[in-house]
């Protein structure tokens, strides 16, 4: 690969939490209207407890040739905080895909596809039977990306927020 397209996807460790927080919050502030996202997300504040210690959770970072973070994705147990989608899951182990962001300069280069493939492989190996996520239609490429990965709409929370799931069985 040339310098322009070289990237690496690796599991994150707590040594890079400050960089991860900075990347995620910068991308979120670029994508979401002020006041519609948490500026100190619980999962990043308790990074080790949420992503490092549990064997059924994973936080991935994508870095460019210089080691700068250009993408993130995470898999964690779904906490069942949305009662509107509970009927879709039953008692099956369900993961949630979160913090799936690619820097705007690196979108449409296949990074998201590769990042998701690794995340889904991990989820299946960890024993999850279903995957859940919610996305906003105003996110660049988000909704069509998830549809192309086999996610189906389950519940429209608003005109722009959709809850989706994918059955791994």
From TrEMBL:
Keyword terms, alphabetized: Acyltransferase, Transferase
Endpoints of the signal sequence: none
Superkingdom of source: Bacteria
Pfam families associated with the record: Acetyltransf_1
Xref: CDD domains: NAT_SF
N-acetyltransferase domain residues: 18-169
SUPFAM superfamilies linked: Acyl-CoA N-acyltransferases (Nat)
An MF annotation (GO) of this entry: acyltransferase activity, transferring groups other than amino-acyl groups
Protein known as: N-acetyltransferase domain-containing protein
Source organism (scientific name): Paenibacillus athensensis
Lineage: Bacteria, Bacillati, Bacillota, Bacilli, Bacillales
């Amino acid at each position: 690969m040339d310098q322009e397209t070289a990237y690496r996807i690796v599991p994150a460790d707590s040594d890079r939490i400050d960089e991860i927080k900075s990347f995620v919050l910068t991308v979120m502030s670029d994508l979401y209207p002020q006041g519609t996202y948490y500026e100190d997300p619980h999962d990043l504040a308790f990074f080790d407890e949420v992503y490092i210690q549990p064997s059924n959770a994973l936080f991935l970072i994508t870095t460019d040739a210089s080691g700068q973070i250009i993408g993130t994705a995470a898999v964690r147990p779904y906490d069942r905080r949305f009662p509107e989608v509970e009927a879709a899951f039953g008692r099956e182990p369900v993961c949630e895909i979160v913090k799936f962001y690619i820097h705007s300069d690196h979108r449409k280069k296949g990074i998201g596809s590769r990042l998701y493939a690794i995340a889904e492989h991990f989820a299946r190996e960890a024993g999850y039977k279903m995957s859940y996520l919610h996305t906003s239609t105003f996110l660049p490429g988000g909704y069509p990306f998830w549809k192309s990965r086999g996610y189906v709409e389950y519940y429209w929370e608003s005109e722009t927020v959709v809850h989706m799931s994918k059955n791994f069985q």
